[in-house]
Amino acid sequence: MTNSANLIDVKPVNEESYGNVVPLLHEIRHALTRFQESGETTTIDLRRIPMTEHDENQLENFLGVGEVSVEINAVGPTHVFETQFAAVWHIEHRNADGEIATKFIMVTSVPDLVKTQPEDANRSIRALNQRLNKLTKNED
Amino acid sequence: MKKNKEQPSVDEVLAQHGVSRRGFLKFCASIASLMALSPDAVPQIASALSNARRPSVLWLPFQECTGCTESFLRSHTPTVEGLIFNSISLDYQHTIMAAAGDQAEEARREAIRSQAGEYLVLVDGSIPLGNAGFSTIGGQSNVDMLRETAADAAAVIAIGTCAAFGGIPKANPNPTGAVAVSDIITDKPIINISGCPPIPVVITAVIAYYLTFGRLPDVDENSRPLAFYGNSIHDRCYRRPFFERRQFAQSFDDEGAKAGWCLFELGCKGPVTYNACATVKWNEGTSYPIEAGHPCLGCSEPDFWDAGGFYQGLFPWEFYTARPRPGGPGQGPR
User: Fold this and answer.
1) Are the Cβ atoms of A113 and B25 closer than 8 angstroms?
2) Which of A66, B85, B202, B257 sits 20 to 30 Å CA-CA off B29?
3) Burial degree of B129 (CB within 10 A; 0-12, 13-18, 19+)
4) Does A139 lie at the interface with B, CB-CB under 8 angstroms?
5) CATH of domain A11-109
């Protein structure tokens, strides 16, 4: 049995930084300018950028939280929110265990994932028809 | 058994499991991120996977400890990655299949006949060449079964360090004459997913990549997918700032260890080990060995078992001559 008194408390390295936050914010600024001028959307995969917990907190604090927030429940939760900078969205995908799968910054008007997908709409038509038919038969 | 073209598409299988298109797109975004593809590739992945036929997979466990299988099958509660794996037609895996004996072997041979040129072969475990009797399945030696099964395969995926490089069975003095898959099969595309065990999601990501692009992903000089093995553990280690400041723990319970300092002088092989443990992590994304306070053993590298003691620090000359990587950093400290 483990004696908890003997466990070594390893301190998390929260204060360290890779120094990537400011360059990333400049990248977001350029993407936002392109979006405003030409409508070009940009997706930045945060997983590919080395960041410590301190860096991630610094980024999230800088971007802040804006007016729109969406929760999607599709094979685990996805949290989408517009940051305080309009058209700059933060997307966090988690799997069914709640583990973070990916994190993105999207510069767009509305992330595509928020919109109803045509394939799901088609399935909805079939499901609605089936239920309506069943309901109609029951009433007959 | 259905011919491959009669199999439902991956998208259809996922829909049968109640996965919405949103969930599917989310999976595609995760795969793109894992494989270091541009987020712009997500529509291409979605389109390709939507039309990809359910692939037939023959999984051959040879001279192994079943750790690779355990790692994968016990990895997560249902996720889309798991569902992708469920969506393949796993026609042979003698550890977990219901059929046994001649029935199991007939299932494998039927898959070879009906899916010739289209099926994938997964292998875990090394192959003993010293004596055919060291490891047999249904009376057939591992090497004969591998040659027979791989002959008509589209590609071979070597799972775990034993299949990829010979692993622990090949460790000195290698009593069984263990070799890697690539020592035997030389005329098929082979990709190595090394690790003891390997990270489970890498397997599904490689299969999804194959279904999407019709080929195996780009690999390093050890035939490992660059997306996962392109950076050293050291490159992405959260303790790296301590290394740069030369702040090293000297024992497992000194003040440096308690302060989370670098484990380099306690034998950490992170600087010469290429894997995605520091970014993908283990146990449902909880942590990885260094985060738990233990040096990296270097288990995804060839001959790791014979590379000195696990707690013997890398000599400076070993570290400073860490091989340069095409397309990646990993050239040691600057």
Assistant:
1) yes
2) A66
3) middle
4) no
5) 3.30.1370.140
Using only C-alpha atoms, chain A has a radius of gyration, in whole angstroms, of 22
Please state the domain extents for chain A. Answer: 11-109, 115-140
Q: Where are the domains of chain B?
A: 54-229, 240-320
Crossing angle for the helix pair B101-114 and B142-150, nearest 10 degrees? 30
* Residues of chain B contacting residue A123, judged by C-beta atoms under 8 Å apart: 15, 20
Give the pTM. 0.81
| Alpha carbon distance, N-terminus to C-terminus of chain B | 57
Tell me the CB-side half-sphere exposure of residue B63, using CA atoms within 13 A.
32
- Asked if B293's CB is within 8 angstroms of A48's CB, the reply is no
Domain B54-229 listed as CATH 3.40.50.700: yes
What is the fold of B240-320? Cytochrome-c3 Hydrogenase; Chain A, domain 2 (4.10.480)
Query: Under a CB-based contact definition with an 8 Å cutoff, are residues B224 and B164 in contact?
Result: yes
Closest by CA to A108, choosing from A30, A26, A36, is: A36
Does residue B104 carry a pLDDT above 70? yes
Half-sphere exposure of B138 (CA within 13 A, CB side): 17
B78 touches chain A (CB under 8 A): yes
Percentage of chain B beyond pLDDT 90 is: 47
Are B154 and B116 spatial neighbours (Cβ–Cβ below 8 Å)?
A: no
Q: How far is CA B142 from the centre of its chain?
A: 20
Question: pLDDT digits over B62-86, tens only?
Answer: 999 999 888 777 655 445 556 566 6
Nearest to B33 by CA among A20, A91, A84, A6: A91
- The two tokens of residue B136 are 């047999």
Give the chain B residue whose CA is nearest to the CA of A120.
Answer: B21
Strands A100-107 and B56-61: unpaired
DSSP assignments along A2-63, one per residue: --GGG---PPP-TT---S-HHHHHHHHHHHHHHHHHH---EEEEGGGS---HHHHHHHHHHH
Segment B9-68, tens digit of pLDDT: 777 777 777 788 888 888 888 888 888 888 888 888 888 877 777 778 899 999 999 998
**Residues 17-46, chain A, touching B (beta carbon < 8 A):** 17, 43-45
In eight-state DSSP terms, residue B52 is P
Strand partners, B57: B90, B120
B137 reaches A (C-beta below 8 A):
no
